């Protein structure tokens, strides 16, 4: 806090000491982006910009730790860099809408004490709900469907496991007509496959409906599919 006070008073040596003393904080933050193909040196430099912004803008009268304020600033700077360097280009108007929507989201969360709906954001910005949804989706960083999101004793759940199926009746599950194979499955396995592939529910939705964990749904689903495949080879 003394260094921050000196920095606020224009002491550049104190500012330099603050920057050097918090480089480990930047390193810890960029570890969150280690699975990306970006050059870690570039991310580190961008993170340092976020750190400097945090130092220059931190309100020393706030009753919070500096790191609590700095980490979101560093993350935000890195995300902006990744967004601006994304090969999928997003128009300036769409990015502006997304930026204003994020500002409105923070404002409404403070007022409503809950996550605002897309329609509430649209009303706040005086635009259509579709514009808000499209803008926010456009700036989301793409991730691999095979990226793990949860692991329970080796039974890993991937992003693709959380997605509902939007396929038509010509999906592989209907095409192979495995009615005979289904008869050999347990009632629970049949219900899981029905909900997952015919109703298009996510594993999380199935788990909630059946009353078991998502990891159990994933395990039972994979086992049932393997059993069906082995019967149809």
What features would you highlight for this structure?
about 230 residues, mainly alpha, two-stranded antiparallel ribbon, about 65% helix
Structure write-up:
The chain is mainly α. The protein has 13 helices and two strands; from the N terminus they run H-H-H-H-H-H-H-H-E-E-H-H-H-H-H. A two-stranded antiparallel sheet has the order 1-2. The termini are far apart. About 6% of the residues have low confidence.
Rg (C-alpha, Å): 24 Å
Relative helix content: 55-70%
Q: Which regions are unreliable across 5 or more consecutive residues at pLDDT < 50?
A: 165-178
Mean pLDDT: 76
- The count of helical stretches stands at 13
- Percentage beta strand: under 5%
- Largest β sheet strand count, sense and barrel closure: 2 strands, antiparallel
Number of E strands: 2
What is the CA–CA distance across the termini? 69 Å
Give the CA-based shape.
Answer: elongated
Order of neighbouring strands in the sheet with most strands: 1-2
Structural class by secondary-structure content: mainly alpha
Along the chain, the helix and strand elements come as HHHHHHHHEEHHHHH
Looking at how many chains there are and whether they match, the oligomeric state comes to single chain
